[in-house]
């Protein structure tokens, strides 16, 4: 049995938060392959081989992008494959973000049944407007954006990655 300290096993733990996040991104880039936009389930399936914490990070990365560039409801227009949706929700809970997980679940319940009703290149906002659900979506989006603010100027998701990896390095880097 390895008697070394976590810092000796995983030197990145000693980095400041910004450098540590960069290291986590580097690990994800090296370990995750496939197209997150795919609808065939292959991307979600590729995440299954990762340690639970790294899988949570890989699945929630695309939600962070959506919250930054668009909204939580728009997210499903790009990343609505059911396997990835399930892994994203599980990832939020694993990372200790239950409020954002609940908001994501609510957005999924709204958006997932609608996705197959899109007209050719219709974007999620157009679909919501056509279905008379724009106000419902706006309420969910505002809640999600409110939860995404972080006191350090970083997203709440990436802040959770750093906190989680420092607390549970074996779930990110392996045993």
In short:
The protein has 175 residues and is an all-alpha fold. It has helices spanning 6-9, 17-31, 42-47, 52-69, 72-79, 82-94, 98-111, 124-130, 134-147, 156-167, 170-173. It is built from 11 helices and no strands.
Unreliable sequence segments = none
Please tally the β strands and state the result: 0
Work out the helicity level. 55-70%
Share of β-strand residues: under 5%
Overall shape: globular
Structural class: mainly alpha
Distance between the termini: 11 Å
Biggest β-sheet description: none
Q: How large, in whole angstroms, is the Cα Rg?
A: 17 Å
SSE order and pairing:
Blueprint: H1 6-9, H2 17-31, H3 42-47, H4 52-69, H5 72-79, H6 82-94, H7 98-111, H8 124-130, H9 134-147, H10 156-167, H11 170-173
Helix pairs in contact: 2-10, 4-5, 4-6, 4-10, 5-7, 6-7, 7-9
Your description of this structure?
The protein is mostly helical. The chain is built from eleven helices and no strands. Helix 2 crosses helix 10, helix 4 (52-69) packs across helix 5 and helix 4 (52-69) runs antiparallel to helix 10 (156-167). The radius of gyration is 17 Å and the shape is globular. It starts with 5 loop residues before the first helix and ends with a helix. The mean pLDDT is 90.
């Amino acid at each position: 049995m390895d008697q070394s300290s976590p810092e000796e096993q995983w030197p990145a733990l000693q980095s400041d938060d910004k450098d540590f996040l960069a290291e986590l991104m580097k690990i994800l880039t090296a370990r995750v392959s496939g197209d997150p936009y795919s609808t065939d389930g292959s991307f979600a399936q590729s995440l299954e081989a990762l340690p639970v914490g790294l899988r949570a990070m890989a699945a929630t990365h695309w939600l962070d992008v959506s919250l930054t560039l668009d909204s939580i409801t728009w997210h499903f227009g790009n990343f609505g494959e059911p396997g990835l949706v399930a892994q994203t929700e599980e990832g939020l809970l694993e990372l200790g973000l239950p409020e954002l997980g609940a908001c994501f679940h609510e957005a999924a319940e709204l958006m997932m049944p609608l996705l197959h009703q899109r007209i050719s290149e219709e974007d999620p906002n157009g679909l919501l407007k056509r279905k008379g659900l724009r106000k419902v979506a706006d309420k969910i989006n505002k809640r999600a954006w409110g939860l995404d603010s972080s006191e350090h100027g970083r997203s709440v998701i990436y802040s959770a990655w750093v906190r989680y990896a420092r607390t549970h390095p074996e779930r990110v880097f392996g045993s």
